[in-house]
Amino acid sequence: TKNKGRISRFVANKCSIASRIDCFSEKPTTKFGEAMKNQVEERLEFYESGTSPSKNAEVMQGVIESLKMEVEDEAPAKSGKKRRAEEDTSPSKKTKKDDKKDHKKKEDKEEKKDKKEKKDKKEKKDKK
């Protein structure tokens, strides 16, 4: 009962980390979630018996290394022409134009919103 709050905070922390990893990872994988689940189980065992749980940094590093090994195993299977990294990172002219258009649209929307708010305030003031 006294460890209930501790473990709930620990689980919430792990969920938060897992969602960030899922959001920012290029390829979806369950390995991080499985490792975190094992960490939660280790923490429960720690509260019951006192055996020290593994460190988060060590566990995450192990998962990253195992994922690197999987990628290296898959890499020889792929064949074909590869693009240089420079080509992948530089945005095309079309995307730059689209970004400018989006930025301009946002500015226009903000301007319209500001004008509408001013008009509403003025009407409200006139009613009084």
TrEMBL record:
GO cellular component: box C/D methylation guide snoRNP complex; small-subunit processome
PROSITE patterns, alphabetized: NOP
UniProt region (Disordered), positions on chain: 67-128
Entry superkingdom: Eukaryota
Residues in Nop domain copies: 1-49
Positions with biased composition (Basic residues): 115-128
Cross-referenced InterPro entries: Nop56/Nop58, Nop_C, Nop_dom, Nop_dom_sf
Biased composition (Basic and acidic residues): 84-114
GO molecular function ontology, one term from the record: snoRNA binding
Pfam family, one: Nop
Protein name: snoRNP complex protein nop56
Designated gene of the protein: NOP56_1
